[in-house]
Q: What sequence folds into this?
């Protein structure tokens, strides 16, 4: 399979609050459902890691290794999901939640009543210029659902990747086992969220988000689910 260079179109050095950071993407093989995360880290990371570095991991890969997904064949789209996607913001460079099957997974996780409440309160929020209320009320971390993307790699075209389980715990386990301070992010072309970090990561979540906001991992077939974050 033809893949893009690890950093195509990405500026791998960024300056935040007067400090410069390198975001070094680590190229891997395709990581499949049920693969062992520790084996991937052992294979690709230690030789690249330096003292005071931070390992940044895509939440998608955590969920893939946890077998935390839904196949599109298991999703039956109902009226509520079809109604919600009519009002979802469309982005030119990201599918977001514009596909009804993906929204149906969110409905299945949160429940109809909660999603209806999210619609009502989210609409009121927009009237008063407050964004994001829909996803706050929907809860259950459904905003982190990924996949069902016809432009993505084959494994993500027919699978919805659900939020990773216990991301902070996973980060700490990686730090304890490999001596690698670790962060798990939900990064895309719209926004970046910090889902968890281990204790020795000195940067706070706000700082980490700003450093990674431009999604240096990429969003297509770069095969760079790991990034080494380094002060320069």
A:
């Amino acid at each position: 399979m033809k893949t893009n260079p690890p950093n195509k179109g990405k500026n791998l050095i960024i300056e935040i609050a007067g400090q410069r950071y390198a975001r070094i993407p680590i190229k891997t093989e395709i990581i499949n459902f049920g693969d062992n995360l520790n084996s991937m880290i052992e294979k690709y990371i230690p030789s690249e890691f330096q003292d005071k570095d931070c390992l940044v991991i895509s939440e998608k890969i955590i969920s893939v290794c946890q077998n935390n997904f839904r196949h599109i064949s298991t999703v039956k789209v109902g009226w509520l999901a079809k109604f919600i996607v009519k009002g979802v913001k469309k982005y030119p460079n990201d599918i977001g939640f514009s596909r009804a099957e993906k929204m149906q997974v969110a409905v299945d996780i949160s429940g109809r009543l909660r999603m209806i409440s999210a619609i009502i309160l989210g609409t009121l929020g927009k009237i008063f210029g407050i964004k994001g209320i829909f996803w706050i009320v929907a809860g259950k971390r459904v905003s982190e659902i990924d996949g069902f993307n016809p432009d993505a790699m084959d494994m993500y075209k027919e699978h919805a990747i659900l939020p990773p389980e216990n991301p902070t715990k996973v980060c700490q386990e990686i730090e304890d086992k490999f001596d690698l301070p670790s962060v798990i992010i939900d990064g895309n072309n719209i926004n970046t969220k910090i889902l968890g970090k281990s204790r020795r990561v000195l940067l706070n979540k706000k700082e980490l988000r700003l450093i990674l906001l431009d999604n240096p991992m990429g969003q297509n077939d770069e095969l760079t689910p790991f990034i080494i974050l380094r002060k320069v």
Remarks:
- Confidence is low (pLDDT under 50) at residues 1-5.
- The first helix runs from residue 37 to 44.
